[in-house]
Structure formats: structure tokens, C-alpha cells
Amino acid sequence: MSRIWPCQRVIMSRNAKCLSQLDSLEQKSGSQRISAYVRRGLMRYQEAADYLGIAKGTLANWVSQRIGPRSIKIGSMRLFRQEDLDVFIEEKLFETERFEKRRRRQRGRGALVLTCQHPDLFLFSVLVLALAVFIFTVP
């Protein structure tokens, strides 16, 4: 008795005309099945990690913590669609932009720092300006 894979169940339940595809899937070896997933735009951990530019272990940690990209589990394999990886990248770019804007806003709330070639002259001019404001505003 041959094993029925989850992807075969989907093919059988959605379209009865695809029964010939089932025979061809059953005859394929494991590596050929994996390449069939790749042709459908599905990637395994290593390919998805390479696509994102991160280590395979990092991607596995993110998936286990549920902070990584969406994935599909078929049997014991976890697969990632390229569209889901692209959405994940876009979300991370948006989060980074928001974080940078927030950091710039917080950075702008600090003390005013001015640099001058002649700090003594600058300090003198500030004192003169403060004295002038004081003299002309006091009745």
C-alpha cells in the first residue's frame, strides 16, 4: 500500500481529474517530491534562510517563537512560500522605518549642542544678547 501525502489529498479532493498526477507523485523519489515543492514556489528551511539572508538556525528559532514568516507544514517538512517571505521582509522594513523615526524624535528632545570655532566669542555674544533682552523688557 502506498502512502498518501497531504498534498495528494488536496489534489484528490479538489479535482478528480488529477488522479493521473497521483500516480506520478507516488512513483517519484523523496528528492523529486521536494523539487516538485520548489517548482510550486515552496522553500525549505535552508532555501528560505538564504532568501532572507539569515542563518538556518535563526529562522528555525523565529518559527518556534512564532515571530518568523508564515510557513506550511506538510508531514514532517516545514515549507515557506516566497510570497510569505516577501511579506515578512516588507513588514520588517516597515518596523525598522518606524523605529528609526521614533529614535530620531527621541534624539531631537535632548539638549542643544552647538559647535563654534571661537567658543569664548560665542559665549560673550549670548551674554550680551541676554543682557539686552533683560534691559529692554524690565519696566
TrEMBL record:
InterPro entries: DNA-bd_dom_put_sf (IPR009061), HTH_17 (IPR041657), SinI_DNA-bd (IPR010093). Keywords: Membrane, Plasmid, Transmembrane, Transmembrane helix. One of its GO terms (molecular function) is DNA binding. The chain crosses the membrane at residues 111-136. Residues 46-92 form the Helix-turn-helix domain. NCBIfam families: excise. This is Helix-turn-helix domain-containing protein.
